[in-house]
Write a structure and sequence with these properties.
With about 280 residues, the protein is of the alpha+beta class. It has two domains: about 60 residues; about 130 residues, endopeptidase domain like (from Nostoc punctiforme) (endopeptidase fold (from Nostoc punctiforme), Alpha-Beta Complex), CATH 3.90.1720.10. About 50% of the residues lie in helices and about 15% in strands. It has a six-stranded antiparallel β-sheet with strand order 3-8-4-5-6-7. Strands 1-2 form a two-stranded parallel sheet. A hairpin with a 3-residue loop joins strand 6 and strand 7. Helix 3 packs across helix 4. The N and C termini lie far apart (about 195 Å).
């Protein structure tokens, strides 16, 4: 190196005064702007460094969303269940109303049928009684008494006996009912008691007491209106009314009802005369 060559200095070159002035002006402007902004803000504003904004985490958002979805699903399911139950209740009510209407119609039909059958049965019964009375009244006399052999003229009922016999015969065809006292069903002593009431005579209610009334008579000397009995006189189990011509009328049993039969069909044990 030449001794005369210039030696480069290691010092940093000085900046010119104009550049320094420019930098100072810029810095001053920035500081002034910051000062103005601070003065314009709220007096009690907190430094940004002293307040931290809390943001929801991703986990809490997922939990809230899942809860909302679950609640919505449950509400939809409950609504569907309520609608299903309402539909079932409506269907059940409609079916019950339909069944009730059908049952009522069937009951009405049966009631009408039973009413019509009852009317026909009553008509047949009246016709049968009318025919029986006509046949009996046409017989002015009969052959000798089947038991006593007395003449037919002695078997014609008169006075109170006629009323008793006529009432008893009018009930032929009625039903037999234990304890029955009329007007359409009888037991044996109920019929005898009612027949004697036509003659103004009150008899006891049961057969044993009825057969103990009046005077005992022979079966060969019977007259219309006499009370026939089966068993002992004071302990009879069945009674009937002798109507003449060797016949009697009595409420026999549930299968036959009130009938007029010949004495030899079921021979009585004895008889009493109360008239």
């Amino acid at each position: 190196m030449s001794q005369t060559a210039p030696i480069r200095s290691h010092r940093k070159p000085r900046q010119s005064a104009s550049k320094l002035a420019l930098r100072a002006g810029v810095a001053g402007g920035v500081l002034s702007t910051i000062a103005v902004a601070g003065a314009a803000g709220p007096a009690n504003a907190e430094p940004l460094t002293e307040k931290t904004l809390e943001m929801p985490t991703l986990g809490s958002l997922d939990a809230d969303l899942a809860s909302a979805v679950s609640a919505s699903a449950e509400a939809s399911q409950q609504e569907a269940l309520d609608q299903s139950l309402a539909a079932q209740e409506k269907a059940a009510l409609e079916k019950a109303a339909k069944d009730a209407k059908k049952a009522k119609a069937e009951a009405d039909r049966k009631a009408e049928a039973e009413k019509a059958e009852k009317a026909r049965a009553e008509a047949r019964e009246r016709a049968s009684r009318t025919a029986a009375r006509t046949t009996l009244s046409a017989k002015s006399s009969s052959s000798a008494d089947a038991v006593g052999g007395s003449s037919s003229s002695s078997q014609v009922a008169t006075g109170s006996a006629a009323a008793i016999v006529a009432f008893a015969r009018a009930q032929v065809g009625d039903a037999y009912v234990m304890g029955g006292t009329g007007p359409n069903s009888w037991d044996c002593s109920g019929l005898v008691q009612a027949a004697y009431r036509q003659a103004g005579i009150d008899l006891p209610r049961v057969s044993g007491s009825q057969s103990s009334m009046g005077t005992s008579v022979s079966l060969s000397n019977l007259q219309p209106g006499d009370v026939l009995y089966w068993g002992s006189r004071s302990g009879s189990y069945h009674v009937a009314i002798y109507v003449g011509g060797g016949k009697y009328v009595g409420a026999q049993n549930p299968s036959t009802g009130v009938v007029e039969r010949s004495l030899d069909w079921d021979m009585p044990s004895g008889a009493v005369r109360i008239l």
